[in-house]
């Protein structure tokens, strides 16, 4: 056992850190916020591509850097720590790209992979529907064969970045008679196709990140199907090829803890620093412990993947732990700030520019998005511990 | 980075598990909880023959000179088996104290005996204040010609009643700071003036009240330097804390395994209770606690193994693991229902050990204090 990173890995981290310090400045982040594009920047995504870091762990023949999962872990950790925006590339790099590497036709690979690695194309994910959330496989959006094409009709929801995306990877129902997992097909759709309507869904942070997307007889050529007809469920589940440690969460929690520690040292209440309050100390220490546990859980996922092991339990555990921790940590942060904790960005009185309250609100969504905490526990119990299905 | 165990470590784990399943069945564990000595010399001897007592003792003193991480593997299996007896007090507390502080003569005399299984040690640190800080050391050692005279009461001293030697942490001076003026002595367990009384504890481990009444100890039995013993105590405590965490990890894994197995076999409402989501989520919470406990413990153990500063990591591990073990055993009991509440069942062994381990070497609050300090608060 060795918890040390190799020398090259450490120097990669140092180079990356220097880059992120220069690029992801307070001003840069404030600018994104003011544009309503927190966590989204095409320019930043392009810069990562130019550095060769965007698809660093993809195979070289598809424009990747052939990096190890450990290097990818370091990358994701630093990105999380520095709050760098990932919305411009997350879907392409983490989900549809690796899926095309595994299941795409030569044509599809040629057309899409290079564009993803170059950071030129933004993807969105058409999975969830109004009646298919945790029970995703009951989705109803229909795709009906029509000559050389499929005609798509239905609705998607919670589609992050649909209003910014160039392409969508979409799950549709192609056989309504088959058992629900066996009648689903997977498509790549140009978001400029006629018949697509994107309507904003404003989240509780008053931010426009996700959308409803309506498909009204949208024509998609057959060659845009990924894998075989009615195999879409299984193909979309093959998400093994990307780094799944979730390390960005403990990394960003660590940043938050550091800023809270500074805050309680600097902030005086009736002449006494908040740091002298034993409750404050206790809570921050408790969070420091949990962040370290989270970091170890995440490291283990990447280490397993690096060895070619599949983190059946470890990956959902990390997602569960990290998102729940962020909810607790940001809640504690707000609590420590007392009345000030409620102040938003625009107020001159807002501590840390309202960052903590925004993260706290966002955290309510993070334990739901990409599989709720309850679904994570189901996966851990049923796939991991092999408990019987209900 | 490599978060896996080596092939040798896996072999050690497997052989330890097989050995303990055969030699330390739960019937023996329960018997030893009632037994006054709390261990059997036969099992102690067999463990010594496997080299377990000398695992981390240097080869020149008759040990196997393996790493602290190797010891962690073994301790996990001991925790799984609920192994009773003076292993931690002898090998981890006593053994490390002698390795860290002993002079050549003391090492030459004592370490081979530990490695052979010929010696049982106890470390008398805590007092009625029940704290692990230097200010709590009040038992006095006063020079008297070529000897020291030790007087005072030590409490929660593991295995003092069977120890050949007691390492006694004493106050030899009231210095400027509480750390100053602490000295360690190797006291013969048979010395005149020692009164040992066994405490009745929930886990049936053997903790004692030890009263020292003008116990005469020759100067040459001093372990380390006069008045400068506290840093050694700190190092010993760090190692013992991680050792205890490793035992807890093994116990938590066993409680999880038992509970998952039971959830699969116990049928109610016509289906295994493990098919109910409430039980599934309990199990998911348990495995998350167990896995989290493992790697935070391994991280601290690795730091110690490498000789790196580990104060923060050790405290993080203990703060997390002592509460995680408690949560895991509580949920395990809930899954087992009434049967787990029975004296004859194995679940209570783990719950009781979790409760006993929580305050040992500092509870979670105590260690969070250290974490806060290390954070600069």
Q: Can you give a write-up of this model?
A:
The complex is a heterodimer of chains A (390) and B (377). Helix content of chain A is 45%, strand content 15%. Chain A has 12 helices and 10 strands. By secondary structure, chain A is of the alpha+beta class. Chain A folds into 3 domains: 7-86, Butyryl-Coa Dehydrogenase, subunit A, domain 1, CATH 1.10.540.10; 124-237, Butyryl-CoA Dehydrogenase, subunit A, domain 2, CATH 2.40.110.10; 248-384, Butyryl-CoA Dehydrogenase, subunit A, domain 3 (Up-down Bundle). The radius of gyration of chain A is 22 Å and the shape is globular. The model of chain A has no long low-confidence stretch (mean pLDDT 95). The longest helix of chain A is centred in the last third of the chain and has 29 residues, at 278-306. In chain B, a hairpin with an 8-residue loop joins strand 6 (194-198) and strand 7. The longest helix of chain B is centred in the middle third of the chain and has 36 residues, at 230-265. Chain B has 377 residues and is α+β, with helices and mostly antiparallel strands. Chain B is 50% helix and 15% strand. In chain B, helix 7 runs parallel beside helix 9, helix 9 packs antiparallel against helix 10 (347-357) and helix 9 (311-336) runs antiparallel to helix 11 (364-374). Chain B has helices spanning 7-23, 26-34, 41-49, 68-81, 87-101, 104-116, 230-265, 277-305, 311-336, 347-357, 364-374, and strands at residues 121-124, 140-144, 147-158, 165-171, 182-188, 194-198, 207-218, 222-223, 267-268, 271-272.
